[in-house]
Amino acid sequence: MINMHRFAFIIHPIETRDVTRKYGFMSKIPEGVVKQVTKIMPPQEVSKITGVSSPYGETEGWFVAVPLVSDQMLSLPADMVTKKIIRAGKIAEELGAEIVGLGALTSVVGDAGYTVAKNLDIAVTTGNSYTVAMAMEGTKRAAKIMGKDLKECKAVVIGATGSIGRVCAEMMAGEVDSLTLAARNVEKLKDFAGELYEKTGVRAGLNDNVHGALRDADVVITVTSAVDTVIEPMDLKPGAVVCDVARPRDVSKEVVEVRDDVLVIEGGVVEVPGDVNFNFNFGFPPKTSYACMAETMALAMEGRIENFSMGRELSADKVREIYGICKKHGFKLAGFRSFEKAVTSEQIDKIKQNASEKIKNYRA
């Protein structure tokens, strides 16, 4: 008999329309009033998640919501938001969860999980390690679908001196023809380039100008901590593949609106093993989830009841470890998303066709 370990995952509405969709009577209320309401609403259980199983384990869990929209998560005092997240974690404890995942912006508030973990009697993970793993796999698959051979690609990692950027650069080194590291601080870039060479034997190019770094890029992974977007429509060459791992996003929405010849993805949609039912519509196809959710579920299935991805420091070893655990249990990349919407194979074919036509007129 398998000893089932249970999980919970903390979510929050992305924008006010997510709130009014659940509470229809709020749709006639001004947005500012809706935010005043969400500010005082307590965290609450949203649904029970059932049917997650593989030949090696099974689990069930719950969605617990902190009813603050994205801009509130970032603009309200961090201690106030953290207390709400802790309360949501306490609800998870009361429901019977042994490990809780921090979804969306609940994973970036304050010290990215440490204070939450100290105030709970259950394990905590941000899910960031599997998020990186799926971002890397998604980028590689997207490049292949777009007809690119990575070994012939010029790759750029923007925000390369940050914790996630460093891991992405380390994992991309050696996979591509050339690698450029981009960030604002030249000295940090030089230091990291030296470390990267020692680890991988790859000599990366350096650029403190994002727009200049992007000019010839075939593949881009961007993960800055900038508040405003850093990639604009004219920065990218036709056929470029961009994986935006940052939150808030690094890629301007205008890119997908006016550039029909570049592919922007946010990382992968993950297929969840078993006859899973989330009993809640968070905008994904049935039986699929975000990578951070998948990490939480996989750790529960594996019986790894521990603080796994925590804080702002990540390691390539942990990314590889969680990738292995998830692969064992049957979690796998199922598709792509861009700006909260699925990217279809038909859309990718069209982007590829448009890029092929425009590349003839592109001058590096």
Comma- or semicolon-separated keywords:
364 residues; alpha/beta; 6-stranded mixed sheet; 6-stranded parallel sheet; 13 helices; globular
Describe the fold and architecture.
By secondary structure, this protein is of the alpha/beta class. The protein is built from 13 helices and 16 strands. It has helices at 16-22, 31-40, 70-75, 78-95, 114-118, 128-145, 163-172, 186-200, 210-214, 253-258, 291-302, 316-329, 345-359; strands at 7-11, 44-54, 57-65, 99-102, 123-125, 154-158, 178-182, 205-207, 219-222, 241-244, 263-265, 268-271, 274-277, 288-289, 332-338, 341-343. The strands form three sheets. It has a six-stranded mixed beta sheet, with helices on both faces. Strands 8-7-6-9-10-11 form a six-stranded parallel beta sheet. The protein has a four-stranded antiparallel beta sheet with strand order 14-12-15-16. Strand 15 and strand 16 (341-343) form a beta hairpin. Helix 6 (128-145) crosses helix 11 (291-302) and helix 11 crosses helix 12. The longest helix has 18 residues, at 78-95. The protein is globular, with a radius of gyration of 20 Å. The model has no long low-confidence stretch (mean pLDDT 92).
Order of helices and strands: EHHEEHHEHEHEHEHEHEEHEEEEHHEEH
Structural class comes to alpha/beta
**Biggest sheet architecture:** 6 strands, mixed
Q: Count of helices?
A: 13
By DSSP, the count of extended strands is: 16
How would you describe the shape? Answer: globular
Compute the average pLDDT. 92
Radius of gyration: 20 Å
User: How large a portion of the residues is in β-strands, by DSSP E?
Assistant: 15-25%
Q: Oligomeric form of this entry?
A: single chain
Widest sheet: strand ordering: 5-4-1-3-2-13
Measured as a percent range, the helix fraction is 25-40%
Amino- and carboxy-terminal Cα gap: 62 Å
